[in-house]
Amino acid sequence: MFENLSERLDKIFRNLRGKGYLTEDNIKAGLREVRMALLEADVNFRIVKNFIAEVEKRALGVEVMKSLTPGQQVVKIVYEQLVNLMDTEGFQFKVFNNRLTKVMLVGLQGSGKTTACAKLAAFYRKKGIKPMLVACDVYRPAAVDQLKILGKQIGIPVVSEDTKNVLKIADSALSMADKEMVNLLIFDTAGRLHIDEPMMEEVARLKTHIKPDYIFFVADATTGQDAVTIAKEFYDKLAFDAVILTKLDGDARGGAALSIKAVTGKPVAFVGIGEKISDLEIFYPDRMASRILGMGDVLTLIEKAEEAIDMEAEEKLARKMLKNQFTLNDFLKQLQSIKKMGSLESIIRMIPGLGRKLPADLKIDDKALKHIEAIIQSMTEKEREHPEIINGSRRLRIAKGCGLSVTEVNRLLRQFEEMKKMLKKVNTPQGRKHIERMMGGNRPEI
Ligand SMILES: Nc1nc2c(ncn2[C@@H]2O[C@H](COP(=O)(O)OP(=O)(O)O)[C@@H](O)[C@H]2O)c(=O)[nH]1
Ligand SMILES: [Mg+2]
């Protein structure tokens, strides 16, 4: 999903990564590309225009975080704007197991309404809700049968009647739901190939009659801006509450997902990601934004860096590393701050440029972190600063002090030596430049 958009954005930000500072020029060049990428993804042009203006305003005013490259900083802003664009705040689909919630699905023929009815019913039954389906698409000959078959397949009752009067069917369903103590009554409705007045009027009549708690507009994501235009027309007539975006599995561009909230004012609540009944997910704007950017690792790094790292201390440490003055004390401090962030190995591998330099077989076991900490803590201050003085008898004493074996003490010292060797390798003009960039600019004293 969204392959094209993710790929393009990834390339744009990779180019920005090499640029040093966020300047008006490099932001503009980058955003021009983002703009093209969004338009090619079939996002509504007015939305794209506002989006770019907003990102630009924020990017220009912002100070680049020391641990990020300019490209990453722009990714962060674009990411946050994408989340805003698809925001679901203010909407909550609430279903209770002690009363009835009435839901109506509307949309064009073929958008996935009938399938979505069954998916929703199955989704909520798993949560202890008692659902029932109502077949109100009385025009397409096979529509009622399709819902009945789906209902049978998942063991959920379907109300249908041999009449074209949908209000009558709705009445039967309401009294049946009351009798059976149903919690979630889902009305499948008719949709034509194009919007037409009689169809709209019938759905509007059904709405007035049953007074649904929620109306979901079902949109086929693969139709891009058409889905968005139709959503707007449905919204003007029916004022739906949220959108179920189907066939996202077949949507390589993402335009509908990105535009529908901005155009209708109503968020996507669920997404269909396949033909199977279980292929329904709650829609989370943040997850969708990171899927679109295809930059899970960079985003996670940014988030974690913001949460846990003391930037100044990091910078000092990086400089020490470059000067080859990195000691076991620094290692210990580093371990302690890294423990807050997650697995040591995953963090190291997320650092752009550095991750790739690490040997693939370098395994840092998280359980070993505690041991390493214990070993260093039972060393004297002098030993931590000058590990070369740690001879056989000191090793034995340290091992006893932390309750671990001499082998483990040896392993740590060996690992530390290897790490220093590795740092020496990174400590080339090119490596230094990279770290300088990570720290946000040229620092002549390094
Ligand atoms: N790939 C995929 N196909 C879907 C999805 N939702 C529905 N479909 C298919 O789309 C077609 C039309 O669905 P249907 O529920 O009959 O649409 P309706 O006319 O709006 O009721 C069917 O072949 C479904 O299997 C989805 O999320 N992914
Ligand atoms: Mg149908």
TrEMBL record:
The record lists the organism as Cloacimonas acidaminovorans (strain Evry)
Gene name on record? Answer: ffh
- Which purpose does this protein serve, as stated in its record? Involved in targeting and insertion of nascent membrane proteins into the cytoplasmic membrane. Binds to the hydrophobic signal sequence of the ribosome-nascent chain (RNC) as it emerges from the ribosomes. The SRP-RNC complex is then targeted to the cytoplasmic membrane where it interacts with the SRP receptor FtsY.
Record SMART domains: AAA, SRP54, SRP54_N
Q: Name one GO cellular component term.
A: signal recognition particle
Keywords in alphabetical order: Cytoplasm, GTP-binding, Hydrolase, Nucleotide-binding, Ribonucleoprotein, RNA-binding, Signal recognition particle
Give the EC number(s) listed in the UniProt record. Answer: 3.6.5.4
Q: Please identify the protein, giving its name as recorded.
A: Signal recognition particle protein
The lineage's top-level taxon is: Bacteria
